């Protein structure tokens, strides 16, 4: 077989420009090798493992598989490239089962004579649960979803074991000793009501005979404890806990601020060049996650395909999978580079619709080379140009999964009290619009009394504080000021 990987990113750029122009043949001045150049790695929050800048998403053709696509080959090609971050879920149909088949071929099933422990320890494997409750017997609640592709799954604990069985075991509930995932995420957090359920048994007393949220259960399966009564064998099946979200920054901030227990290590978050047009992640959720030490994984770089004029909405059929490499008018490499040069992003997962030995036609090869960028590789001018371009795609309505823009908001829950002869003001964080928040102005009767620098509010119980020696302040308000001087 002919060599299939460009030897440098410079060669890749030539290929990428030809691919988006619709070229049919490889250029003569590009050199190829049997092996891809070593993947660029980045630190991953407080976790010890480093991650490649590109991770493989478990959706696209791994979930909705066209007849002429082999999903196992996609996973194996990612390993061949040197990618070390892998993502799947209990609501991705057969995705976990395809990982099992690939892992069998790659000797990643523990307990087998040829088990490659070194390779297993070199990758970060993530799965997810959309179950909010930890135990069975829960009642339906408004704005609280509980969902799994497992027919008999009622709880997060059952989803954990389903993951182990589907990826490492027989798919019937059994799995070998030594099975684990590196990260298990609460999937697609959307509402404050879901956060309330998830923290039951942590913020409230934990009684073995009462129900609790999924987080308390995940802690048991991380630590090998049985505080919830759901882990009688004291199994350790997950190494880190996190959550994902692409809809509601308010709920995601609430989830982070209520973690007073050191539980959350990872965040999977939507991020693309149209994020600023919506209730955005880049100035609200991501900075808080980084301050709290989480590893941050980006997703939805192409707006779930909508950047390429797909019908808005998540794929529900193999025919809806986008199988080309970018488009002549919107090269995919710049969209990838944009996300990976966004502050706080450690790695980026992308679902793959099409692989090919011809790098001009291979989404995975193209995405891999595009992701070999340093965090500061793109200038502000380049970023603005990309934002302007993608804002024209579908009228800027590419991020159908994300709440509409709320703009810069005033501080929340402002409280004024007298303490030791002083006036004390406290407030909860404001939300940023298109620009990051700079500071807060404290104003009384039109006079600015002082300012407080904005920084991510780590815990809900630790609000922003301003104190004044003046005891009889009237008509006091706190205004949010962003980096461009806009106020709310």
Automatic annotation (TrEMBL):
It comes from the Bacteria. Residues 54-307 form the NADP-dependent oxidoreductase domain. PROSITE patterns: TAT. SUPFAM superfamilies: NAD(P)-linked oxidoreductase. Gene3D superfamilies: NADP-dependent oxidoreductase domain. PANTHER family: D-THREO-ALDOSE 1-DEHYDROGENASE, NADP-DEPENDENT OXIDOREDUCTASE DOMAIN-CONTAINING PROTEIN. This is Secreted protein.
């Amino acid at each position: 077989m002919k060599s299939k990987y460009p030897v440098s990113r410079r060669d890749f750029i030539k290929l990428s420009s030809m691919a988006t122009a619709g070229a049919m043949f490889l250029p003569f001045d590009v050199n190829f090798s049997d092996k891809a150049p070593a993947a660029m790695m980045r630190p991953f929050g407080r976790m010890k493992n480093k991650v490649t800048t590109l991770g493989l998403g478990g959706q696209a053709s791994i979930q909705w598989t066209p007849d002429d696509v082999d999903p196992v080959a996609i996973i194996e090609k990612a390993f061949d490239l040197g990618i070390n971050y892998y993502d799947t879920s209990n609501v991705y149909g057969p995705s976990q089962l395809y990982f099992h088949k690939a892992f069998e071929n790659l000797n990643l099933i523990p307990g087998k004579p040829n088990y490659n422990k070194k390779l297993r320890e070199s990758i970060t494997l993530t799965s997810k649960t959309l179950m909010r409750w930890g135990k069975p017997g829960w009642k339906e609640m408004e704005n609280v979803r509980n969902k799994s592709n497992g027919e008999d799954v009622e709880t997060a604990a059952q989803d954990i074991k389903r993951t182990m069985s589907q990826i490492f075991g027989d798919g019937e509930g059994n799995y070998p000793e030594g099975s684990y995932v590196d990260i298990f995420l609460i999937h697609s957090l959307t509402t404050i009501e879901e956060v309330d359920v998830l923290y039951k048994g942590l913020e409230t007393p934990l009684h073995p005979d009462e129900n609790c949220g999924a987080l308390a259960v995940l802690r048991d399966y991380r630590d090998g404890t049985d505080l919830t009564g759901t882990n009688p064998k004291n199994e350790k099946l997950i190494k880190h806990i996190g959550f994902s979200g692409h809809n509601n920054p308010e709920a995601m901030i609430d989830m982070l601020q209520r973690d007073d227990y050191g539980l959350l290590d990872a965040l999977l978050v939507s991020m693309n060049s149209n994020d600023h047009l919506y209730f955005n992640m880049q100035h609200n959720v991501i900075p808080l996650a980084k301050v709290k030490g989480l590893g941050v994984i980006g997703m939805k770089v192409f707006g779930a395909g909508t950047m390429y004029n797909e019908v808005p909405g998540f794929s529900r059929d193999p025919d809806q999978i986008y199988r080309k490499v970018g488009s002549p008018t919107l090269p995919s490499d710049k969209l990838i580079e944009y996300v990976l040069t966004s502050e706080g992003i450690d790695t980026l997962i992308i679902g793959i619709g099409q692989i090919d030995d011809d790098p001009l036609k291979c989404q995975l090869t193209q995405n891999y080379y595009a992701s070999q960028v340093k965090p500061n590789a793109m200038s502000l001018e380049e970023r603005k140009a990309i934002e302007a371009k993608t804002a024209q795609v579908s009228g800027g309505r590419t991020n159908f999964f994300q709440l509409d823009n709320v703009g810069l908001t005033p501080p929340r829950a402002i409280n004024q009290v007298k303490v030791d002869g002083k006036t004390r003001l406290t407030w909860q964080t404001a939300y940023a619009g298109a620009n990051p928040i700079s500071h807060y102005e404290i104003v009384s009767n039109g006079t600015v009394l002082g300012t407080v620098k904005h920084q991510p509010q780590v815990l809900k119980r630790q609000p922003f504080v301003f104190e004044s020696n003046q005891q009889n302040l009237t008509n006091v308000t706190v205004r949010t000021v962003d980096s461009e001087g806009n106020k709310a």
